[in-house]
């Protein structure tokens, strides 16, 4: 099986055809022409200052509430390092992003997984956990088109989560890299924008709206929090990459990012629709929630389909998938995450057909 023949639903990255390469090349030229000294210098630990200002305006906050980082994973790491100590209780969604789980486990956190429903985190289950006496330091939530489940936290639950955070004195970490990749329905306000009690720290990234290679993410929080984390960033690396951040800034201020988002939305909306149709046709026994945006769809199979057997069987047939067990503390033995972002619409049905063959093989 050659790389060209492989159909990969594994990686949450865009296919090259929806990356605005020409726009990025032009943005790079403008960045060096407009600010050669700023682009080539070390810069400051808070990031490229013009981009920091642009992000602040996007979110309606002061610039001193923004820290621009080398990708959102670094933003996550900075926040975890600042807030979480070994033994601290931390709430995560079940399922959730696998690297979040790994990083928090490495820190010695006491992790509490809360079920994800079609309308997002089960806030009733969270309330029961809190009423039992658990006092989390942090709750990590991906509110829009969640990775891996693809679901969106409802407005009612966003407000309830804010109330719970204020009542039980924990920080909501709103990890929100997919918010702009909406291809159905109406956009919901971020918890950051709804927060009046200073309980939310927000993170996002340009990975999904520009391209992964720029490695530019950011944190938005209180000015004091950002100042403290910036001190740690100075000690760690002096400053993040100014070249990438200056390119992203030019890409944003020119309006290219808006055009890029529309391209990504249109392409991924079609891919999500085709994937859902193909699953219904080839795997009618599978259960899933069709996403309104983002990159991912979570598929649950009957109990006689074990993903430890299914994943290698799919690989033998030229389909790459990620096991659901990678995204939970325990369980996930009958689920897969399918990323439709990197598979063009004309190859999705064939990929699902191969996956259906693999399912039949492991059930027999």
From TrEMBL:
The protein's organism comes out as: Micromonospora orduensis
Aminotransferase class I/classII large domain location is: 7-355
The GO annotation for biological process reads: alpha-amino acid metabolic process
Q: What is this protein called?
A: PLP-dependent aminotransferase family protein
Q: Which cofactor does it need?
A: pyridoxal 5'-phosphate
**Which UniProt keyword terms apply here?**
Aminotransferase, Pyridoxal phosphate, Transferase
Write out the GO MF terms: pyridoxal phosphate binding; transaminase activity
| PANTHER family xref list | AMINOTRANSFERASE, KYNURENINE_ALPHA-AMINOADIPATE AMINOTRANSFERASE, MITOCHONDRIAL
Please, which domain of life does this record's source organism belong to?
A: Bacteria
Read off the lineage from the record.
Bacteria, Bacillati, Actinomycetota, Actinomycetes, Micromonosporales
The family database entries (SUPFAM superfamilies) matched by this protein are listed as: PLP-dependent transferases
CDD domains, A to Z: AAT_like (cd00609)
Q: Does the keyword Flavoprotein apply?
A: no
Pfam families the record matches:
Aminotran_1_2 (PF00155)
Please name the InterPro entries in this protein's record: Aminotransferase_I/II_large, Class-I_PLP-dep_aminotransf, PyrdxlP-dep_Trfase, PyrdxlP-dep_Trfase_major, PyrdxlP-dep_Trfase_small
